[in-house]
Amino acid sequence: MADELKPAYLIAGTDRPKIDRAVDRLRRRFAVDAVELHAAADLSGADAVAACNALGLFADEGRLIVVEGVEGWKADDVKEVAAYLKAPAPVTTLALVGGELKKDAPIAKAVHSGKGELLLWDAPQRALQKWVSEQFALHGAKAAPDACRMLLERIGEDLYDLSSEIDKLSTWARGDELGAEDVDRLVAARAETTNFELTDAWGARDVVGVLEASEGMLERSGDPYSKTIARAAGILTSHIARVRRAQALESQGIAAKDAAVTLKAHPFYVGKLYSQGRNFTTEELRSATVRLAELDHALKGGSRLPTELELERALVEITEPPALQASR
Predict the structure, then answer these.
(1) Per-residue confidence at 221, pLDDT binned at 50, 70, 90?
(2) Is 38 helix (H, G, I), strand (E, B) or coil?
(3) Using an 8 Å Cβ cutoff, are 94 and 5 in contact?
(4) Torsion over CA: 89, 53, 11, 31 (sign)
(5) Residues in contact with 55: Cβ distance below 8 Å, sequence separation at least 6, in sequence order
(6) 178 has which bridge partners?
(7) Quick one: 135 and 94 in the same domain?
(8) CA 272, 102, 159: angle at the middle one, nearest 5?
(9) The CATH number of the domain where 297 resides is what?
(10) Which of 130, 136, 232, 285 is the most exposed place for a label (fewest CB within 10 A)?
């Protein structure tokens, strides 16, 4: 991003770790209390514009409005944003974050026409080994092809897990080329376990299971707890956004196998999203999104409680069934 802030950014694609890093860099340019986080499922384009135009305590220093999941916005929402960007608020930056979006998508055209910036990054679907190699290069490290291949075998295709391991391996290598023997010695096999354990336990409303899965992530990560806790919160936030969208599609009478095309995901995975969506009401999923936004604020200095306790409290609140909540 250029030093001078744009009135709007569209940060989207399937390379979620890269998108998260870009959003985090943008957020660090503002005071913590000057950042507002919203979900597009709860916020219309008109509401987003109203948030941008509202005067706040940080009107002189700058404000950041982040809206997640804008790929689900309708034409009317895009029109509102396009109209706003013709004369945007001078001290407010609007960050629109989404999944896979093309440069010719209506929201992309609106941001581009409004002198905003498009940051669209997609992870290759059939060339993940190349993506892994490129990520090592971004960290100033070099990895042999067999090392990249072994890392994929050990970790699987989850971009968050891969990014975490690449970061650790790059630091360990200190400029030396990484070989397969290094990955074999330093990386424990855990492909497609930690993230799915967490999201599956949440989707089943298994409080004990979700707490155990989060504890497992903390123990196996090797990263500082604060970093792993933030990653767990991010995983759940993204997953719940997908469940909400699947739930909305099912309410429209769209079968899971047909929704797989819309969501650009494997039918088996979409079936799981549909199944989990049936375990929650629409309001519960909306509340879970809000609760995770509150957790994000707490993790960034908005609470004096230990980050582990903040995570545990949030996990219990967004997971336990209504009957248990009522009995407490």
Answers:
(1) low
(2) strand
(3) no
(4) positive
(5) none
(6) 143
(7) no
(8) 45
(9) 1.20.272.10
(10) 130
Mean pLDDT of the chain: 87
Residue 60, pLDDT score: 65
For residue 2, tell me if it sits in a domain.
Answer: no
Separation of alpha carbons 39 and 50, rounded Å: 15
CA distance 277 to 271: 10
In degrees, rounded to 5, the angle at the alpha carbon of residue 123 between the alpha carbons of residues 120 and 124 is 125
For residue 122, count CB atoms less than 10 angstroms from its CB and return exposed for 0-12, middle for 13-18, buried for 19 or more.
Answer: middle
- In angstroms, the CA 59 to CA 120 distance is 29
Instruction: Report the b/e string of 12-27 with b at 16+ CB within 10 A.
Output: bbbbbbbbbebbeebb
Residue 110's pLDDT is 95
d(CA 96, CA 48): 10
Average pLDDT over residues 302-322: 92
What are the backbone dihedrals phi and psi of residue 89, each rounded to the nearest 5 degrees, phi first? -60, 130
* pLDDT tens profile 162-176: 888 899 999 999 888
Report DSSP letters for 290-305, one per residue: HHHHHHHHIIIII-SS
Give the range of the structural domain holding residue 144, as residue numbers without chain letter.
Answer: 128-186
